[in-house]
Specification:
alpha/beta; Rossmann fold; 4 helices; 14% strand; globular
């Protein structure tokens, strides 16, 4: 297993598009510079090659808009056990 990183949403999209094979899971925050998590998710879902990648969103804000995203949600603060379960579950489904 390998891990790829990006400093913001725009770079995250570029990394995901260049990765071979495509990422098996994306872990992201909603608050990012340059391209926020909402914008990232919107662009990711528009890209046919990336749209099916499971996404785990980490956020301190939980409202109707957050719970409506097509992604798993982890509310901060996040325990190690919660993070581990979120990362393993999409890979085993």
């Amino acid at each position: 297993m390998r891990f790829l990183t990006a400093e913001n949403g725009r770079d995250g999209l570029a990394v995901a598009r260049k990765a071979t094979p495509a990422p098996g899971l994306i872990l992201q925050d909603l608050t990012m510079p340059i391209m926020n998590g909402w914008q990232f998710l919107e662009e990711l879902r528009k890209d046919a090659a990336l749209a099916s990648i499971p996404v785990v969103v980490m956020t301190a804000v939980i409202d109707a808009a957050v719970t409506s995203v097509n992604a798993s949600i982890l509310r901060k603060p996040i325990s190690y056990q919660q993070l581990l379960e979120a990362l393993v579950t999409p890979l085993t489904e």
